[in-house]
Write a structure and sequence with these properties.
This protein is of the alpha+beta class and 334 residues long. It folds into 4 domains: 7-118, no CATH class; 122-222, Tetrahydropterin Synthase, Chain A; 224-266; 268-334, no CATH class. Helix content is 49%, strand content 23%. It has helices at residues 25-51, 54-77, 152-157, 162-179, 183-188, 190-205, 224-264, 268-286, 294-299; strands at residues 7-9, 78-81, 85-91, 94-99, 102-105, 111-118, 122-132, 138-149, 210-221, 290-292, 307-310, 314-316. The strands form 4 sheets. It has a 4-stranded antiparallel beta sheet with strand order 1-7-8-9. Strands 4-3-6 form a 3-stranded antiparallel beta sheet. A hairpin with a 3-residue loop joins strand 11 and strand 12. The model is unreliable at 1-19 and 303-334 (pLDDT under 50).
């Protein structure tokens, strides 16, 4: 399964093999001034040597070397840390102190800087491709992690490169959690998974002085075929629920009809009026042909007839009769 590298965003990233040079304008200013003075004495020394004043010339060259060395020392030993920076300093290779924001001085040829650490909140994009869930479904998960360094000493001394360690710990934790979770829980229980993932990563990174603030799963991608299957399953489930609701409605309607029949059984007049009202409403709204079965007419006490309505909503009562026979043919009108 391919594993995508974690992209960590933030400023002043320091690798194990390459340290970023931190130069502050204040340091540059105080380093340039002795360098300018050294350049002046160098020019004066060369001039004096040209005119034969060797003693004064060599004196100027010595002063040049002194100011040049002073400028180099200021450049390398006078440091300024920003508000979010913590600087780990070593003396003879052993831990000395964690320098706080502001100006600090390194003892020349004795003190060294081990690491500049940014204590602001960092973000890391976590990508897990084709990771199998507990029910063996391959998914692609995209998450984001927010973390920060709360103990600069641990981050510098307990692990070689805390940034890589944190990101790979988060990567493996994400894949492990996906492998222990079923697809349904992964899709509907994101908040619970976020909290559990944060707890797992924080437990791993705590010895390194790193605290995980939150982890949020942004997107979960499943195979196209599985999406179609889940869509059909959801559609079938909605259809089943619709049929259940329709059946319950039919039961309620049947109960209402049964209750109404009890009221009409001993009141033929009410039944007759109700039947006439139903015919009238149908003719008024539809304005089309309406055929009433004879059995319904008998039950509604309207007599043995057929109700016929056409176009303008007129009800005609026509009985069957025998017409005169013309040219050997008989006509019947209903």
């Amino acid at each position: 399964m391919p594993v995508m590298p974690i992209v960590t965003s933030g400023s002043r990233r320091i690798g194990a093999a390459q340290q970023e040079v931190h130069m502050h304008p204040f340091t540059v200013l105080w380093g340039v001034v002795p360098s300018i003075i050294a350049a002046v004495f160098f020019v004066l020394g060369v001039i004096k040597l040209d005119v034969g004043e060797y003693v004064l010339g060599f004196t100027y060259l010595v002063i040049f070397l002194v100011f040049l060395g002073l400028g180099l020392i200021i450049f390398n030993c006078l440091k300024v840390a920003d508000q979010w920076d913590r600087v780990i300093t070593l003396r003879y290779g052993r831990f000395k102190a964690v320098q706080q924001p502001g100006i600090f001085w390194l003892t020349p040829f004795v003190d060294t800087i081990a690491k500049w650490i940014d204590t602001r909140v960092m973000t890391a994009d976590l990508l897990a491709e084709e990771t199998l869930t507990k029910d063996t479904v391959p998914v692609d998960v995209d998450a984001v992690m927010f973390w920060l360094v709360y103990d600069a000493k641990k981050a510098a001394l307990e692990v070689e490169n805390f940034e890589n360690a944190v990101t790979w710990a988060a990567q493996t934790a994400l894949r492990d959690l996906i492998g222990k979770t079923e697809l349904a829980d992964l899709l509907v229980g994101r908040e619970e998974l976020d909290a559990k993932l944060q707890e797992i990563i924080d437990e791993r990174t705590e010895p390194w002085g790193v605290s995980v603030r939150s982890v949020e799963i942004r997107e979960i991608k499943i195979p196209k075929d599985l999406q179609d299957t889940m869509s059909r399953q959801a559609q079938a489930e909605r259809e089943r629920q619709a049929r259940v609701i329709l059946g319950e409605s039919e039961k309620q309607i049947a109960a209402s009809f049964a209750e109404a029949a009890k009221e009409y059984v001993n009141n033929p007049t009410a039944l007759h009026l109700r039947a006439m009202n139903m015919l009238f409403e149908g003719l008024k709204e539809k304005g089309s042909l309406m055929i009433v079965p004879s059995s319904a007419i008998d039950s509604m006490n309207l007599g043995g007839m057929v109700g016929l309505a056409a176009g303008g909503g007129v009800l005609e009562q026509i009985t069957q009769h025998q017409g005169e026979k013309t040219e050997g043919k008989s006509d019947s009108v209903v």
